[in-house]
Every structure is written in C-alpha cells, then in structure tokens.
C-alpha cells in the first residue's frame, strides 16, 4: 500500500478550537495528519516569528502538539523538528473562525501559517469560515476535504497557496476570486479607563468592503465559496518600469549601473 500523504495541520485560533477539530475530522482518512498549533488564540499575529524566548511543545495526543508560539512558529518547528523524519506533502491552515479576505490576509495568522509552508517549499491551503448566527462548519469541512484531495493530486505552482473562504449558510457555488478591498470604518475606538486616561481598542467596526465583482469579499457576501490563489512575491511588477526614472543624486551609479566601474 502506498504511503499516506503527510499533512501538517495548523491554525491561529489554537489547537483546541472548533475549526481545527472540524478540519482534522474532514481530513482524517485522506492523510497522515500532524497537528501542530498554538496553545491559545493567536489571531491577527500575521507572520510573527518568536525570537526572544524559548518555545515549548506539549504533546496532546499521537501526532498532536500544542506550541506556546505563533502559527508561523508551529509550521517552522513542526517541519524542522516534529516531522523531521519525513517532510509534509501539504500544509493546511484553518478552519479559521472568521473570514480572511482582501487586505485582511496580511494580518491573518491563518494565511501566514500557510505562507510559511510555501516559503519552506510545500503546497499550502488556508481555510476560513465566515461567522455569524446559524454558522456551521459543515461546508468549510467538506471544502477542506475536496481542496486537499485536489491539491494532493494536482500540486500548486511554486510560491502559491490557495486561500478559501466559506460564506455563512449553504454556499450557492464556488467562485475563483482575487483579493477584495476592505474599507475600515471606526477602526479604532477611543474610550477612558476607570482612572480617566485615554485607551484605544483596535478593530471596533463592522467590515465594509468595496462592491467589486470577482473579489473575495463580494462573492462571499453573495453566498459563494471563494478560492483565491495567493502568491508570495509581493513585488509591484507593474510599477518597475516607471521606477527606471528614479535617479538618487547621492549615488554615483544609480539603479545599480556598474558598467563604468
Ligand atoms: Mn483566527
């Protein structure tokens, strides 16, 4: 019998979250699952790597580990130490409690964990479920399973991951999307503490996004599952040409022109 594909499962909501349990259950018979996840909530930690204190790993079951670090720590540590005998075939991050769309992917620990897999050279999927009244993990779990099977069969291009978002309620279908544009409203709430000093809470407002067809925000709001391929290379390729006019005067050889050296 051929070896089961090895799948590293992580998230940013913590190893005991409902979303990761739904994900593990959805994937349990299609791969050898290794759960390496933060020991608590790590949402919005982005791609943070812990460098200023030691990390501790707690074994919580067979091939199940809780780490007192970030999602990125979990992927790095998981691949280099816990799975050291054989590399994973895939990294799956989620299922996040809450959507990760548009510019929010930059804050997301869920998406960053998947990107860490990509940086280390493995295909990766990030999954998120929009939350609200009547939410269920059923559709996102079914999607997790099908995307995992698809990626194991087809692979992904270098430096690319799949970012999937599942709407509230039964999905109307699937849309391939690009990142949408979020508008931040009342992003920071100012209040007073009991001693009258000013305090601030980030993230107070409800998300509002631009109504742009074919973007993740828009299609998920219309009730579709959204799948966006994301690329690690953030270079603004379209602007490189225009930048050729950039000639800092303090440099003898602007733009790296060393032909006269
Ligand atoms: Mn989260």
- Biggest sheet, open or closed, and with what strands and sense? 9 strands, mixed
Which term fits the overall shape?
A: globular
Number of E-state strands: 13
Helix and strand run? EHEEEHEHEHEEEEEEHEH
Number of domains: 2
What gyration radius follows from the Cα positions, in whole Å?
Answer: 21 Å
Task: Tell me the number of helical segments per DSSP (H or I, 4 or more residues long).
Answer: 6
How much helix is in the residues?
10-25%
CATH architecture of the largest domain: 3-Layer(aba) Sandwich
Low-confidence stretches: none
CATH superfamily of the largest domain: Survival protein SurE-like phosphatase/nucleotidase
The strand order across the widest sheet is 3-4-2-1-5-6-7-13-8
Structural class: alpha/beta
Termini distance?
Answer: 62 Å
User: Would you give the CATH topology of the largest domain?
Assistant: Stationary-phase Survival Protein Sure Homolog, Chain: A
Which molecules are bound in this entry? manganese (II) ion
Give a verbal description of the structure.
By secondary structure, the protein is α/β, with parallel strands linked by helices. It has two domains: 6-180 and 215-256, Survival protein SurE-like phosphatase/nucleotidase (Stationary-phase Survival Protein Sure Homolog, Chain: A); 182-209, no CATH class. It has six helices and 13 strands. The strands form three sheets. It has a nine-stranded mixed beta sheet, sandwiched between helices. A two-stranded antiparallel sheet has the order 9-12. It has a two-stranded antiparallel sheet with strand order 10-11. The longest helix has 17 residues, at 138-154. The relative contact order is 0.14. The mean pLDDT is 92. Manganese (II) ion is lined by residues 12-13, 43, 96-97, 110.
